[in-house]
Amino acid sequence: MTSTAVTLCFLLRHTPSGASEVLLGLKKTGFGVGKIVGLGGHVEPGESDAEAVCREVHEEAGVTVLQEDLRDAGMVEFVFPARPEWNMSTRLFTTRRWQGEPSESPEIAPEWFDTSSLPVERMWQDADHWLPVVLDDGAVDIVVTLNPDNETVASSVSILRNT
Known about the structure:
Radius of gyration: 15 Å
CATH class: Alpha Beta
Structural class: mainly beta
Number of helices: 2
Number of domains: 1
Number of strands: 9
CATH superfamily: Nucleoside Triphosphate Pyrophosphohydrolase
């Protein structure tokens, strides 16, 4: 199974009242347009996952994240049996440190959301299967297989990898 290497980064902060928030964005162009998504994108040739996610966060939201401030939150393998060219191997990161204020780009309109009430009805349906764990400082390693409609989840299976 061939898949495209992509990355996602979730910026996390606490509000003055102590609530936990995550930066997500409304996708304005390309794959997933109209959905609320994490910041990230394709890993370019010669880039590490960490380099790619730092570049993508800056391109999409105008903030600078340093590699040393990233926390590895695992992997999600997305399998699209009806569209195998969409298969993605996605490295997940979180961070609580960055420089700058998030701003809109041609691709993403960033917005802060309370981690206890994510806008799952506006996100890819799979997000509810793994995102809460990641935002709670956990890590995931799962395979999400989509139905032929390329929207709904057929299965979500945690996997064990040899280390």
